[in-house]
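Researcher: I need the complex structure. Ligand is magnesium ion. Inputs:
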Amino acid sequence: MFTPIALEAKNLVKYFPTGHQGLLGRPTKELKAVDGVSFVLRQGETLGIVGESGCGKSTLARLITRLLDATSGEVILDGKDITSIKGRELRAVRQKLQMIFQDPYSSLNPRHSVGQIISGPLEVQGIIPDGGVKKRVQEMMELVGLNPEHYNRYPHEFSGGQRQRIGIARSLILNPSIIIADEPVSALDVSIQAQILNLLEKLQQELGLSFVFIAHDLSVVRHIADQVAVMYLGKIVEMGPSADVYASALHPYTTALLSAVPVPNPKMRGASGRIRLEGDVPSPVDPPSGCRFRTRCWKATDLCALEEPALADAGGGHLVACHHPMEASERAGKPHSDR
Amino acid sequence: MSSQKPVLIVENLSVSFATPDGIVHAVNDLSFVLHEGETLGIVGESGSGKSVTAASLMRLNNSVTATSTGRVVVAGVDVLSASEADVRRLRGSEIAMVFQDPMSALNPYYTVGYQIAEAYEVHHPEASKAQVNAKVLEMMTKVGIPNPAQRADEYPHQFSGGMRQRIVIAIALVNDPKILIADEPTTALDVTVQAQILDLMLALQVENGMAILLITHDLGVIAEVARDVLVMYAGRVVEKADVEDLFEIPTHPYSWGLLGAVASLEVSSRGHLRTIEGTPPSLLNLPSGCAFHPRCSFASENGSRCTTETPLLVQKGPKHSFSACHLPVERIVEIGQKVGN
Ligand SMILES: Nc1ncnc2c1ncn2[C@@H]1O[C@H](COP(=O)(O)OP(=O)(O)OP(=O)(O)O)[C@@H](O)[C@H]1O
Ligand SMILES: Nc1ncnc2c1ncn2[C@@H]1O[C@H](COP(=O)(O)OP(=O)(O)OP(=O)(O)O)[C@@H](O)[C@H]1O
Ligand code: SF4
Ligand code: SF4
Ligand SMILES: [Mg+2]
Ligand SMILES: [Mg+2]
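Model: Output:
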């Protein structure tokens, strides 16, 4: 708890205009992609953010890294809100905050050599490191497990996992302190996923990095995160120390999400306490009143439609936004408890 | 295991593609049997030949550059050498397929009801309009689409990803096929929707007794639904086992790596994910001997055999597992017991 704060998000909101243009040329509706998200990332720690497709994870990542402008809210870095800074100040922030993307195929320019790609951020920032650009790039390649002799090769000559290493090397070249990784292993095979996850852990330890790690795969996040936040329709519905969230999920949605992950152990097949959610996620243009999860929640009551539950501490820094959180007895027989 | 009737027999199937860079050996000497009502899983990494195998079973690798050898027998017909009319008769009625991307399997310009009806009429030209309509509603209800009468008139883009996959399943099953090939049917879906679709497929299987060939790269999905499993690597089956045996005592070094690399929900394994070093080989230029040898940490235990001699798929260990590896059986069992759960 006394670890210093690396980054803080306060009530971040992003609405995208959508629908037909109205009389005055204004969009008629808003898509509420991120709707009031707050969290604290501590130095040297990993905050995992999970949730299903469309819940706003990538939008959140883009708000934090200033690839998108927030509708409202703050992102505090070194005691300062960075949501409206510009020019030189923004460039300085970009040096500290780097992003790794999901798709190792489309996020690298096919016409640039690996050396050019990895050194790109140096060029943007106008930095010439001691010993020269090439030396620095080759150090980075070495660090992420690429052969430094492949400096002049092109992305198509590398496999998916190697391309993701190129992306990681690029994100590290400016010595950032914070990395926002948006589904960095989702497009990779399991054996390659494991290589990249192990690499990220190693880099975190060696370089003291803080990570925001986004995934829709709960098992991947569990492996790497200290804290985990679960999102549903633009909001965090549960957040806390990973061990707590995984062992005793409080929000019905988290419980359902955990329950839906296939367990790589045939003996667990058909384990009791399996929860199957019905239906689909509602549209973020017109989210349900009160609790946004209520249309799929088996515990919903009238109160849930009337009043939005606030994200509140249920003890030990384990936050949940629910009028009727899960009780220990309801989780009995759940297949994912710690052994 | 084999008391039931075989519905699909694959013998020595090999598929290669001629490309400007050379010949891609996508599937090499693959054999297996699928029985009535059985669920066989095929698992392997990207490029291991899973989809090419699936497509061969319905003779869909029909590009001029593709060469297929071996036999694929469905309802007494060799799919690879049969006439186009015979293969068309099998498709849909004996063997049907569900793909990863439901959007590519549906025509965006026709209503979903029309597309289900069309699939039915191919094999039931005599059916009346009323019969066809009743069938469409029956199928939509079966796959769990609410308000089927109303939604039959909607277009694919009006459905969510999970609902679209339900429609694709309705189309695949409308003629009551004996074999359903599902190539990564849930990979594009969220986990909660994946669970719904897998449940649905299994429920429909119980209802009509079809055999399912489920292709996936997700060992979790395999563990949840398959009864028997083929593990593929570089176009070959490297292990063939009952699902419980595979997870209890895996018998191939590649399976050991795959199982170790799964980031499981069950145990937090921070910093201890075992990995398989390196990357899958190029199919243009397969490594000599055992194709896995450049990534295998046990290759050195067998002298030069791993680099010179392709291992055959033979029975290994106390269970009825088959694997293609030169390691002595005792060594395989020793390590397999440590890796398994
Ligand atoms: N530029 C944009 N304009 C309009 N809507 C957008 C834009 N970017 C994202 N959205 C919408 O905002 C919502 C959140 O999208 P976002 O990409 O953040 O989700 P996500 O959680 O990253 O999903 P996934 O797991 O599929 O990557 C979605 O409904 C999406 O369609
Ligand atoms: N028409 C084709 N021409 C040339 N090569 C092909 C063709 N179709 C497939 N291949 C190659 O055959 C190999 C096996 O491909 P396949 O699609 O079966 O892999 P897969 O196991 O299904 O992988 P994934 O998990 O990525 O779907 C790949 O190397 C692929 O590039
Ligand atoms: S607030 Fe109500 S509807 Fe929302 S998750 Fe809790 S019980 Fe369910
Ligand atoms: S045959 Fe040799 S290289 Fe292949 S898996 Fe067995 S030990 Fe490894
Ligand atoms: Mg995203
Ligand atoms: Mg495939």
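Model: Summary of the prediction. Residues 310 and 321 of chain A are 5 Å apart (CA to CA).
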